[in-house]
Amino acid sequence: MDFVNTEGVRLHYEIVGEQGPWLALVSGGRRSGAEFLPLARRIAARGFRVVLHDRRNTGASQVLIEGDRGEEDIWADDWVQLMQHLNAGPAFFGGGSSGARLALLTSLRHPDAVRGLLLLRITGGAFTAGRLPDSYYGQFIRAAEQGGMAAVCATPYYQELIAADPGNQDRLMAMDPRQFTAVMRHWLQIFLQGPREPVLGMTTEALQAIRVPTWVVPGNDKTHVSRHGREAAALIPGCELFELPVADEDVPALPFSAWGPHEETLATAMADFMRRVGHDAH
Questions:
Q1: Cβ(61)–Cβ(12) under 8 Å?
Q2: What is the chain's pLDDT, residue by residue, as a tens digit (282 residues)?
Q3: 31: helix, coil or strand?
Q4: What letter does residue 24 receive in the DSSP assignment?
Q5: Closest Cα to residue 243, out of 92, 122, 116, 126?
Q6: CA–CA distance from 26 to each of 52, 156, 183 (Å)?
Q7: From start to end of the chain, where are the E strands?
Q8: 2-124+194-278 falls under which CATH superfamily?
Q9: Which 3 state secondary structure label does DSSP give 56?
Q10: How far does Cα 30 stand from its chain's mean position?
Q11: How many CB atoms within 10 Å of residue 167?
């Protein structure tokens, strides 16, 4: 396992591939980078180096519940620092679901670091806006208010983080629950800002300001409605839309593994896009 320290937190990362242009991929939700390992291996086999990492407060990376910036802003800054540490920039950035939002945000915060964007399963719409805030923040605020940091540590999500890095329990238990809830409420407030669609939290003006080659694959469930992917692609200048032969399903959220049968197709299309635009991307 490889780690890098950035802004006082230890991030876990993995490089797949030996040579070629760099692609940084972030998975969806609060899941670890391992979600994209099968896809990363397929892309690497086509001549690329793929960097997967666990964002702070996810996977095998350290927990650090602090910061005045929004959580996604912190993740974007961490991501660029990781790539700088690897001397891997400018690079292609991409991801699925929340990882796609993060890639968009990273390109706006750090335009010189981003060579192009590959966005899978755009997140947006009223259903998503109603579901994610409690999943990401609300449930943990309630746990802290009702049972202190011991109750936070006992939630299934934090149990996974503690299993991956037992030191996370000590860091969490050392926090004042009032400070924990204050940070979580601050992050929640920032997360709730901005439009609901086509991309959660991303204004039309922000999408129209994207200036790097961009490639979008719409999702096909209630959290990643295909229409929002197509609408986002239409707003980003010069964006290429790539649609898989999948139908929208009336389920809250399909796991990325549901696209397993299409990963060869995705890897080929992603590699083709990066090779095609790489010569003229800054």
A1: yes
A2: 699 998 889 999 999 999 999 999 999 999 999 999 999 999 999 999 999 999 999 999 999 999 999 999 999 999 999 999 999 989 999 999 999 999 999 999 999 999 999 999 999 999 999 999 999 999 999 999 999 999 999 999 999 999 999 999 999 999 999 999 999 999 999 999 988 999 999 999 999 999 999 999 999 999 999 999 999 999 999 999 999 999 999 999 999 999 999 999 999 999 999 999 986 444
A3: coil
A4: E
A5: 122
A6: 6, 22, 23
A7: 2-6, 9-16, 22-26, 49-53, 91-96, 114-120, 214-217, 240-241
A8: Alpha/Beta hydrolase fold, catalytic domain (3.40.50.1820)
A9: coil
A10: 8
A11: 12
Token pair for 66: 């602090």
- Shortest CA distance to 221 belongs to which of 199, 255, 248, 246? 248
- For 125: left if phi > 0, alpha if psi spans -120 to 50, otherwise beta; the answer is left
Q: Which two tokens stand for residue 234?
A: 């239409």
Please list, residue by residue across 128-158, b when 16 or more beta carbons sit within 10 angstroms of its beta carbon and e when fewer do.
bbeebbeebbeebbebbeeebbebbbebebb
As a whole number of angstroms, the distance between CA 256 and CA 107 comes to 23
Measured CA to CA, the distance from residue 49 to residue 91 in angstroms comes to 10
pTM: 0.95
**Per-domain boundaries in the chain:** 2-124+194-278, 129-191
Paired tokens of 222: 């209630």
Closest CA to 17 of 54, 34, 53, 42: 42
Q: What would the two tokens of residue 96 be?
A: 């699925």
